[in-house]
Design a protein that fits this description.
Length: 512
């Protein structure tokens, strides 16, 4: 009985399990069908959406292509219209050209016919003129060519006579007016530039306080004076004149260096050979700066600008040079003013004339090419420092050593003559004296080994300083003889000239 219940229970359980399985499968089938149906609906929706999007994209592409096609058609249509318009224009121009060509052809025909008529008339006129000439030849008893030649000769003679008379009258009037005008300009110029005359001397006096200072300047056995003379090239004369020492030398620059050096030495109180050389070197440098300042001040006073600095230095050196005893800087300033006044009277540029007048004697203060005349050397320097061609020619031609190609050249020549022709302005003797002394110094300086050469005692003595390393004692003795012989053979001088060759050996050591 228990087994029956157990088997019934098992059977019931099996039936229940079978029923559950069947029900679960049915439920799964129903859910799967629902999922499939849902998926089918979603797929259909996506399909419809994509088809709509594709259709819209197709319609958009179609519209864009149609727009491009329409734009291209419109462009082609416009080009076609333009070509048609141009064709119409060309056709109208061609018709216009054809019409004008027809008119030209008709005009050419008219011209040809008129030309034929003119040729015919010209032939008739020529025949009539020939007939008239033949009748005139018969009446006059000469050919037409003979009559023409006679008429031409008579007209030439008459014209030549009238022209010569006119030329003579014009030349006489020009000479008269030119002479009057030149005299007026020169007189006015001289009256307007009545500057004082400056005469250069060959000596400078140096005042001292007492004889004690004079003794210190002389030094032991005269060594200080000898050192100062050797350093400056100036003869120092110490005589019985109270409170005065005389500096004698033809070169104003050397005299000025000696004067300033003596002044500093006396003020400082230390006077011995080493100090003398130091002071002379310092004063020489200061004098170069003063020369430059003098040149600048001169240019400012005359209103001359843009000069090369080397030309300004040469102008400053004019202060210490003389021309036939006349101070060269004062002479050049005077010539500049004279030339500027004459240029103004003649309607020329006074600044150019003043510039050329100031620079006309720069060759006298230059140490380059001493064999050239100072006018040509001045022109060479002006050209070297980029002065204008008319100024260069005026400088070089103011002594007629160069052809005058500038209108300012005669002005410089006249201005130089006016400045030098003033009573007492120049002395021929001092200039020749200076040239002789300068020639003696240059002759001695031409020998190898010579460092300095000074003409002193009014040219009666020539002191030549040589380098101890380059010239021996024997060579120094021979050198004095050779220089004396050359001076005797090549130069003209009064009296005798003493040649002194100085060879000094120095040994310097420094204690530390």
């Amino acid at each position: 009985m228990l087994l029956y219940y157990i088997l019934s229970a098992i059977a019931g359980a099996i039936v229940a399990l079978a029923i559950y399985i069947i029900a679960a499968r049915a439920n799964a089938r129903s859910r799967g069908a629902a999922i499939i149906e849902k998926a089918t609906l979603e797929a259909e929706s996506i399909k419809q959406k994509k088809m709509l999007e594709a259709k819209e994209h197709f319609l958009q592409l179609k519209a864009e292509n149609e727009q491009k096609f329409n734009d291209r058609n419109n462009s082609l249509r416009d080009r076609e219209n333009n070509c048609r318009n141009k064709e119409n224009q060309l056709n109208s121009q061609a018709s216009e050209l054809g019409r004008r060509q027809h008119e030209l052809d008709s005009l050419r025909g008219q011209l040809n016919s008129r030309k034929d008529q003119l040729d015919k008339l010209e032939t008739e006129c020529t025949e009539r003129i020939n007939q008239a000439n033949k009748q005139l030849e018969v009446v006059a008893g000469m050919s037409a060519q003979d009559a023409k030649n006679m008429l031409v000769e008579n007209m030439k003679a008459e014209a030549r006579t009238e022209a010569q008379a006119y030329i003579n009258d014009t030349m006489d009037e020009a000479r008269l007016n030119a002479a009057k005008e030149a005299k007026r300009i020169v007189i006015n110029t001289i009256q307007r530039t009545a500057t004082e005359t400056a005469i250069e001397n060959a000596v400078t006096t140096f005042p001292i306080e007492n004889d004690e200072v004079k003794g210190r300047i002389i030094g032991r056995e005269g060594r200080n004076i000898r050192a100062l003379e050797a350093a400056t090239g100036v003869e120092i004369v110490v005589d019985d004149t109270p409170d005065t020492i005389i500096l004698s030398g033809f070169d104003p620059v050397r005299r000025e260096v000696a004067r300033l050096s003596l002044h500093q030495l006396v003020v400082d109180g230390r006077i011995h050979p080493a100090r003398i050389e130091e002071v002379v070197a310092k004063v020489s440098k200061q004098l170069e700066e003063e020369i430059l300042e003098t040149g600048k001040r001169t240019c400012i006073d005359l209103g001359i600008h843009g000069l090369n600095i080397e030309l300004v230095k040469l102008i400053g050196r004019m202060k210490y040079r003389s021309s036939y005893g006349q101070n060269l800087l004062q002479h050049s300033r005077e010539v500049a003013s004279i030339c500027a006044i004459m240029a103004s009277e003649l309607g020329l540029n006074p600044k150019v004339a003043k510039r050329a007048g100031l620079l006309h004697d720069i060759g006298k203060v230059s140490e380059e090419d001493p064999e050239l005349p100072h006018a040509l050397l001045g022109a060479k320097l002006a050209e070297q420092y980029k002065e204008r061609p008319e100024i260069v020619n005026a400088i070089g031609a103011h002594h007629e050593e160069m052809e005058m190609t500038s209108i300012y050249s005669p002005l410089i020549l006249v201005g130089d003559a006016i400045s030098g022709a003033r009573p007492g302005a120049r002395r021929e003797v001092i200039e020749s004296y200076i040239k002789r002394l300068k020639g003696m110094e240059d002759l001695a300086a031409s020998y190898p080994g010579v460092t300095k050469s000074y003409a002193i005692q009014a040219g009666r003595e020539l002191r030549v300083i040589v380098g101890a390393e380059e010239v021996s004692d024997d060579q120094a003795a021979r050198l004095s003889t050779e220089i004396a012989q050359r001076i005797q053979d090549e130069m003209t001088y009064p009296g005798q000239v003493k040649i002194t060759v100085i060879r000094e050996t120095r040994s310097v050591a420094i204690a530390k």
